[in-house]
Structures are given as C-alpha cells and as structure tokens.
What we know:
By secondary structure, chain A is an alpha/beta fold.
Amino acid sequence: xxxxxxxTHLERLEAESIHILRxxxxxxxxxxxxxxxxxxxxxxxxxxxxAFYPSPPPFPLLHVDTTWKFQAMYELRDRxxxxxxxxxxxxxxxxxxxxxxxxxxxxxxxxxxxxxxxxKQALNLYGFDAAFGGARRDEEKSRAKERIFSxxxxxxxxxxxxxxxxxxxxxxxxxNKGESIRIFPISNWTELDIWQYIHLNDVPIVPLxxxxxxxxxxxxxxxxxxxxxxxxLQPGEEPVMRSIRFRTLGCYPLTGAVxxxxxxxxxxxxxxxxxxxxxxxxxxxDKDAGGAGMEKKKQEGYF
Amino acid sequence: xTDILDEPIYKTDALIAQDIDAYLKVHEHKTMLRFITxxxxxDGKSTLIGRLLYDSKMIFEDQLAALEADSKxxxxxxxxxxxxxxxxxxAAEREQGITIDVAYRFFATEKRKFIVADTPGHExxxxxxxxxxxxxxxxxxxxxxxxxxxxxxxxxxxxxxLIGISNIVLAINxxxxxxxxxxxxxxxxxDYTEFANxxxxxxxxxMPISGFKGDNxxxxxxxxxxxxxxxxxxxxxxxxxxxxxDAEKPFRMPVQWVNRPNLDxxxxxxxxxxxxxxxxxxxxxxxxxxxxxxxxxxxxDGDLEQAVAGQSVTLCxxxxxxxxxxxxxxxxxxxxxxxxxxxxxxxxMADDEMLPGRSYWLKIGTQTVTATIQQPKYQVNVNTMEHLxxxxxxxxxxxxxxxxxxxxxxxxxxADNRTLGGFILIDKISNATVAAGMLHFSLRRAQNVHWQxxxxxxxFHAGLKNQKPAVLWFTGLSGAGKSTIANLVEKKxxxxxxxTFLLDGDNVRHGLNRDLGFTDADRVENIRRVGEVAxxxxxxxxxxxxxxxxxxxxxxxxxxxxxxxxxFFEVHIDTPLADAEARDVxxxxxxxxxxxxxxxxxxxxxxxxxxxxxxxxxxxxxxAEEAADAIVARLIP
Lengths: 303, 637
C-alpha cells in the first residue's frame, strides 16, 4: 500500500471528475447528464452521486433513445434513475419514429436520425445549456484532442481548430448566445480505469457485459444478439445459443458481441487486458468516412 | 519485418493470466504521473509517444493493422512503422503532417498510470505548450542528437520552468543516428547545463535514447554501455509527483459548491488544493476571516478521518458561518492573504492583443472577478529570455504586468500554490479564454489605500441640486453629430435649472488625456479615465454628458458597470459612415483616406455599435434639435 498522502490513479481521476461535475453545476444555467446506460455512463453517474452526496445530483438524466437498445439496458436505466433520485427524461426523435427508421433498413441514417438528430432536438426542446457526456479520450483519435468543456454552435457543430485552452483545473464555462457546452468528466479515464473503478466501487452495470448463453447470428463477421422478435432473420438463418458478452453497448442490431466465458468482473477485466483488439472495433459507427469517421460525426453534432 | 515489430520488451504482467485478483489488487492502487513532451518538429516526439504506447501494449491488433497500412501509404519511414501516425489525430493534421493542438495520451505500466500531453513545437503555439504543461508533473524535453540544443529547446525549457515544472528530463533522441557516440551526448548535456543554470532550472535528468529503435526507453540499452542512469520508463515510474508535495503544504480548499439538501445539512464542497484536513481542525474562511472547526468530511462511502491535497470532498463546520462559492477554507492560524493589486506573468493566448485598461474576467480557483491589466513592464523574448519593452501583448507573447481586480481575491504566489496563484483571463464580449497568468505577489498599495468615508453623501449632493444624477453617454462615428447634439442637450437642461457638465472628447484630450494617442490600447485608457471622471461627477450630483467616439463595446460596458444602476444612458448617434464622411467637418476623413491619419475609426480602426443602447438617434431621420428634445424627454419624462 501507499502512504496515506499519495493518491492512487483512480483517486486522482475520481477527484478530477467530481471537480468538473461541480464546476458545471455552479456555472451552467441548466445542465443535464446524457445517460446511455453503458459502463462509462454508469461510472459517470456514480461520480455524480459522489460529487453531490448527500444531495441527489442537481440535474436530470437524459436518455436519447433509439428504441433499438437491448432490453437489459432499459431495465437498468429505470432502476438507476430510481436509486439515484434523479429525474429521467427519455427522448425519441418523432420523425425517426414516424418514418420507421431502423438499423436493418437504413444503415447510417439510423444513427444520424435517432442519435445525432435526436440529441440535438432533445437539447433544444428542454433548453439545456450544458450536457455531460461519458466520452473518453482514449477511445478515438479526435476525442484525444477534444477539451473537457467542448463548445458547440447553435446548430451543435464542433470546431476542432477553435477550442479554448484549458489550463490547470480552471474551466471557462462562459458561452455566447446560442452556444451550448458538452462536458466530458471522464475524459482522462481509460477503458481499464473504468473497469477497475467499477470493480472497486461495485458500480451497477448492465448484465450484458458478463458472459451468458444468448441467441446469436453471425453477419459480416459480427456476432449479433437476437434481443427481440424485430430482428429480421434471413432465409436459412437460425439463432444459435453462444456464450457471449459485450465490450460496448449500443443498438443491439449494431453491436457486435465477443464469444467469452468471463462471468465475473475480474474475468472480464482479465479478458480485456489479454485482448488484442480495441474496444470500438465492435461498433459499426466508427468505420464510416475512413479514418476521420468520428471527427466528421462530431462536427455534425454527434456527441 | 523489422526488429521493432518483435514482441514488445515491456510485457504485460504474467499475473493477468495466472491470478487476476492478485493483479487487480496491485493495479488498482497504482499512482499517476502526468507529463508533457516537448520538442521541435523533427525531434521525434510523436515517434517517442507512439513507442511508449506500443511498448506498454496500449496498441491493439486492429489499430496496429491500420497503422501498418497507413505507414506504407502516408508514413515517412519507408516500409517501416511510422509511430507518429498513431498520435497525429485530426484529419487536417494528418494531411499536413503536423500536430496542431494539445492531445492527451494514456498508457500504464506495472507501477503507474501515465497521462501524456502531446504539444506541438512550432513557435506560434506557445499557448498549447503552456496549456499542456499546466497540469504536468514532469516535462520530457526532446533533443535531436544530430542538432543539439536549439532555440526551440531553450524555449520549451523556459516555458516548462515558467509554469513551475520541477522535474525535467532531457531526452537526447536519435542516438542511433550518431552511432551512440558518448562524446556527442556529453557535449549536448554540457551545453544544456549551462543554459539551464542561466534560467534557474536547478536540476534535470539527461538520458540518451532512440524512440525509433527503442534504446533506453523501457530498459537500459546495450548500445549505450557508457550510460549508467535509468531508462526513460524506469525514471517516469519512480519520480515524485506534485500531489505528494502539495500535501505537505498548509491546508487550503477553494469552495466550489454549497451542499444544502435540507435544513439539517450544510456542507462545503471543493477540491483540496494543498495540505490535509481532519475533523476537529480549526479553519478560517477567507476573505471574511471567520473561524470554525471541521466536524465531518462527508463522502458517499462514509465519513473520512482525513483528506489530503488532490481529493474532492465535502466539509461540515461546527458553526453556522457564512461561506459560499469563491471563498477559500484554510488552516485557521496560517491563512492566505487577500488583495486586489498584483504583479503577474501573463501568457497571451488570443488573436486579439491585450488591451491595457480593458476589463476582463479573471478566474482563479473558484473566484471570478473583473480585472484590468496595466501596460506590461516588459515582454520576454522566449527564444533569448531577453526583456523587451512592450505596450501590449500579442498572441503567444509572455510578459510581466501589474493588474488590479474590482474586489479582493484570496491568493498565494503561484510558486507556492498553483491553485491560488494561477488564473485565466476571459474576454467579456467574446467569452474566449484570452490569457493564462501566474501571480507573483500583491502590491503593497492594495493594503495601504483605503476608501475614505465622507460625511456628505452622494444622495445629499444630488438632493441639494434637486435632481437625479445621470450619465448621458454619446457614442458614434467621428462627424456623426455627437458634440452638436450634446451641446444642445446641455443648453436645454440648463434652461430647466439642471446642473450639468459636458465632457467633450477633443477637449479632454487637451488636458487630462494629453498623454494618450489613438492606438486601441490608448483608446481604452482614454475611455477608462473619462468614465472615472464621470463617476466622480455623478457622486457630486451632476448630470454628465459625454461626447466620445468610444468605439469599443467592452469599454462602454465597463463604464456602465462603474455607475449606479439606472444612471447610465447610452445614446448611439447613428450616422452612416458615408454621411459622416461627406460632412467631414474637421477634414479628418480626408486625411485618414490619404493615409495621413492612422487608426481612424471607421476607416482603419473598427467601430462596434451598441447592441442595446438606451436610445438610438438616427440622424438621417431627424434634426439635431429634434434629437436633443427626444433625449431630454427620455431623461426627464
């Protein structure tokens, strides 16, 4: 063990995140926390509960729903909102709903309409001027250069060349008319930090992160879970029970599973450490537009 | 395949596979080091970082495959892996082959987690390096062994030293290209030692490395048997971090947020800047100076027996004393001081130059106040460390200046306390972060000049004159008709037995402001002085009429802030430039167009019209007489 005056890396990361959460609450007019129910969101929510304890976090949770998340995600979402004493806002883009946009027939349009457009609509509808997001800098190259306080134009665009310098732990939260801020309190956490923190703090996460026998089909090299009967099976396609788990969670038809026997958190961490592919590899969304996929999406307003 | 693609030397812990629980026990209790890498364009900085990520197994197979493909396509290392491509993130950069901003990278070893701030070495990006350095415990200064100590090396070292980084690593890179020659290495170390001593760097650790070949990165290299020091990673794993030394200092915690879920609980939340705190400790709240003692350190995981620098906590007190965001909780018998005038180092980070006299937001810890900066005492040439005379500071300039704040702030010199000594300046109009600064000390003046309470109050002055004081602030282009209309307004008010005074731009420049010219900085000071004079006159109960071009919104807003609420009337004399130029009563436009008059508003200096003035007078739609009547009617309904 270390002597009592030297903080561990997780203690330093936690303190930094809590500091960021409190700064936003002190300086923004109407903050909200984007809650995607994944493990990063789980840690971010846990940090918010710590930051304001014994008060509940003084802002609502916003879930920009695509209607295509895993059932287990909806269950945990509702449970966590209850336990944290926070208001839960669920937003579904009415236009996407009306047009029946889905991941099977509409490809990239699905993400664009439900997520990117849905997010913009929700922020405009409620008039939130600051939104917490659970993105990490180690996820992707353009994230590595994004500030913790990331300003968006009235149309929610991101301008990577015109970012405010962030010095020490001083954040400038002053915005111009029409601008909003996306704030990333866990910017400096890595995937491994997240797992270790979940392990040490018993943070509740969706059971899909742990291996269990689940109905699956294999498509384009991706292992997809048949989560409900909306999954259109192709002729001759038959769901097969496989022991699988997920490294990231999104819309179930877009999220690839890995075959695994890791049923406990230490086993999941063990696999993560021994794995040879990066976390977002299972996500179809990052592969658009060549190497600059995420950067382009962010400029258009994606979180 | 080349040798760099062989199995990394820095292998993943065998424990992961054998005993994950034991592994987690060790790895969940690692420390963290934040460092910055600085080097010129071709010093191999990105390659070094890519190498650190690669050797610590932070690169996955899918990323490696993409990297191999990219290396062949756009890499600069022929068929070999170009590690630089791993870290040059944004599309614009990859096309141009440069790093344009601060990027953060992460890797971990058995002993520590590392956060690397990767900052570009180009001259125009001083601001990025200062930004990256502000959170760093250590700086790695890269030198190309073939080139030795360059101007950039000196600049990076100066900036790292300026921002207070005491751990400096001099990584002499590309040793493979000088045949691992010790004499080359020794000569560079000798050169650098001389320079380091000259700017006050007390100690540094030098090491010969090759980011490309991997020498002395993770383990001592057989190619440099003459080097007895640690490999880079070994050094990074063992060097002391800032948070450890911060814990030894007296307790200070800026209050971020008051936690008040119900009437029975009142806690003060913040990140402990320095020192330690325990229940029972006597504390003092600044600037009020009220004292109490800590009863609890509250967290979701239960109350703590002790908290140290770097932790975010919530404190409860034994007494109900005033304490809110911006206050600082400190050790009762050793508190920091409060002051409102300082000397500071300022690093300018905006395209628009600093304007002495303009008011900016200053954020320090959790305090935000209005600050004005005086003309710099000097600017530092970051290449030669010479002190140069300066009237202002431009993008990436570093200077020393006095500044004053509109109220007292709790502070400590930056050298003692980064949190209570480091600040940012924010432009009040654009909201951009325009500068970073470090407080040196407070000026004694702040402690010795007090407000003298006078018996005859401003209300009494106004009452004697039977009127409400006001400032009618006319703004508009030269030749718009400000002086003409102002003069008419004053005559009309005089006929109504009002006590007035007209401050005219040209007249003031003959006396009070005879030392000022027409640069942006001088225009700001001109308006500040007129504002102060107008304020004194309203204290005397007068209705003040001013006629100044006053081209910048920022200064007009500053004057507005000086006045009592409701006493400032901004009157925009709105005349199209073409009309004003056609009138050209004083012949000034003609001179300006001929280039004989510099910085002329509307021609080669901007005019920022008010967004929301109390009155807008369209001189193309009414006569001066009608305008004056309208203004008087507005003032005295």
